[in-house]
Amino acid sequence: MPQSNIADLHRLVWLALCAALMAVGSYVSIPVGAVPFTMQTFFVMLAGLILGPVRAPLAAALFVAAGLLGLPIFVGGRSGLAVLLGPTGGYLFGYILAAAAIGAGSMGRPDARVLRLGLAVLAGLVCIYLPGVVQLKLVLAFDWPKALAVGFAPFILWDIIKAVLAVVTYRFLAARRLLPR
């Protein structure tokens, strides 16, 4: 098999793996009111870092599409259009935006400086929280302070910790040359 075909296969496997890890991350869930704490954001951030600005949002879109088509991969084993249109659906749309933003910010470069990677991941968090909190506010008819108190405040510290772990994990994988090229 020619070298370019192997590299393409390697990238495709990483894309599918990242989408699958997002699904697994939904099963690592702690209920915290209307929006549960999950590990999905960690895997979205890691996908953005690993896959870059084109493949990362494809992995996130694959995850969302699989749930939309009925696979029980959203939090609590849920699926379908009702989840996407419900209170937490904005976060799912945000995953696609975040994966693209993180991929663009990191440029999919394993040698990128930690500060650049950190800023890319923080930009990704903004892309998750913005549509997430807006949809939460609209669907549940919250005012802004209540929407931020329910959909942002309980999670931001944990998501910053996950962001640090995503950058560390990415650097670890890059140092061992395990990432797609």
Description:
The protein has helices at 3-27, 40-68, 81-85, 89-106, 114-140, 144-151, 156-175; strands at 29-30, 37-38. Strand 1 and strand 2 form a beta hairpin. The protein has a single domain, classed as Orthogonal Bundle (Arp2/3 complex 21 kDa subunit ARPC3), CATH 1.10.1760.20. It starts with a helix and ends in a 6-residue tail after the last helix. Helix content is 73%, strand content 2%. The protein is an all-alpha fold. It is built from 7 helices and 2 strands. Helix 2 packs across helix 5 (114-140). The model has no long low-confidence stretch (mean pLDDT 93). It has a two-stranded antiparallel ribbon with strand order 1-2.
Mean pLDDT: 93
Largest sheet: 2 strands, antiparallel
CATH top level is: Mainly Alpha
What is the number of E strands? 2
Q: Tell me the series of helices and strands, N- to C-terminal.
A: HEEHHHHHH
Structural class: mainly alpha
Q: What radius of gyration results from the CA coordinates?
A: 16 Å
- Which CATH architecture is right? Orthogonal Bundle
Uncertain regions spanning at least 5 consecutive residues: none
